[in-house]
Amino acid sequence: MTSSRPTLTIQRAYAVAREAFEPGGADLVGVEIEWPVHKRGSLLRPEPADFLPIMNRPLPNSSRITIEPGGQVELSGPPLESGPATLHAINEDAVILHHRLRAHGLIPTDLAVDDRRPPHRILDLPRYRAMESFYAHRGREGTWMMTNTASVQINISHHPDGRNLRWALANKMGPILVAAFANSPGIGPDGQRWQSVRQAIWNGIDPGRTAPVPVSDQPGTDWAHYALAADVFFIRGGDLGTSVSPGLTFADWMTTGHPAGWPTEDDLRYHLTTLFPPIRPRGWLEFRMIDALEPDCRSAAVLVASTAMEDRIAAELVDLLPDTQDLWVTAARDGLNDPVLRDAAQLLLGVVELHLRRHPTHSSAAGTVSTYIDRYTKHGLAPAHVHGDIETDAFPRLDDVVVAAP
């Protein structure tokens, strides 16, 4: 809730933002998977009530079911001690979830961008209304992201001793993972063929909240700068809250206030949940940039990201991998056609596969990564290379764009 007067100082705001980098104790891995869903025999979206019989039944491994704005189903697995362990748990629950969905006439798909139907939001919550309205000021990408995209998200604890090595490595790995697991090919905003149209959609939403966070040896401060410079789109309060148009950064709100009130610590914590960089600190690290994938490819992506963070190879990889800070767009557009990213992906997946093979209980996981390498990575390919192109009106046509004369 907002305050009637200024209470949040800049020093306290920075301290709140830095909390996102505090280790939580246990060293865990979690996975969240999204699937677009349609009704059997048609491409109609389900209504929220259609999901109630599924959501009210617990799953064996306690994975949590939620619904996204466009009717995508999200399954959040239990955080466990390793990538193989959390994969086993969420994959078991996913099989049961899909069986229950189909039993109720709902069909999940592995699409990263659902181009079979126009964007439409089925959840009418104040946050989502405000979000869609805010994004619409820039174009159609925001509604497409909210309603017609899906991903696999990997969550990894900060290192228990508080070191920032994982943050640096995660941001180095990010573009490599985008390229190596791209799964939404099609024409992007520049008229070129992109390997991950989903990532192109994210890039076009609002760079102030979707661009990568700058990486330095002061990540908490970097995150605070990023957060305070990002626009506010929703202020909580009352039954409906207040939608905010682009142009009011959180720092501005702290300085000048708003008719709805002045921000508090809780408002800042809420604001942090409205920021979506590809690697997001949240008391752990969220890998948010990977396209939805079919199960075997998805498992490979989870194993690569989680295994690379283990102490025995993380320090090696952060030195071996190239500087990719300026390759996020290249990764989404060109994928492994880019020679730097192709070599980096082959290095990353090769090191992970070798590490898993040396672990006495991870032979199956090693086989999953090895199969992916043999099918895709060693040939400079990703799943996007074997799929037909996605057709979307998320981006303005080039002939609709007015270019100012010099």
Structural features, described:
By secondary structure, the protein is of the alpha+beta class. It has one domain: Creatine Kinase, Chain A, domain 2 (2-Layer Sandwich), CATH 3.30.590. 42% of the residues lie in helices and 12% in strands. It has a 6-stranded antiparallel beta sheet, covered by helices on one side. The chain has a two-stranded antiparallel ribbon with strand order 2-5. A hairpin with a 2-residue loop joins strand 11 and strand 12. Helix 12 (295-308) crosses helix 16. Pfam families: GCS2. Its EC number is 6.3.2.2. It catalyses: L-cysteine + L-glutamate + ATP = gamma-L-glutamyl-L-cysteine + ADP + phosphate + H(+).
Structure, briefly:
The chain is 42% helix and 12% strand. With 406 residues, it is an alpha+beta fold.
Mind sketching the topology for me?
Elements: H1 10-18, E1 29-35, E2 37-39, H2 52-55, E3 64-67, E4 73-76, H3 83-103, E5 106-108, H4 126-136, H5 141-148, E6 151-157, H6 165-180, E7 186-187, E8 193-194, H7 197-203, H8 207-210, H9 219-229, E9 234-235, E10 242-243, H10 250-256, H11 265-272, E11 279-281, E12 284-291, H12 295-308, H13 311-320, H14 328-334, H15 339-357, H16 363-375
Antiparallel strand pairs: 1-4, 1-6, 2-5, 3-4, 6-12, 7-8, 9-10, 11-12
Helix pairs in contact: 1-9, 1-11, 3-12, 4-5, 6-13, 6-14, 6-15, 12-15, 12-16, 15-16
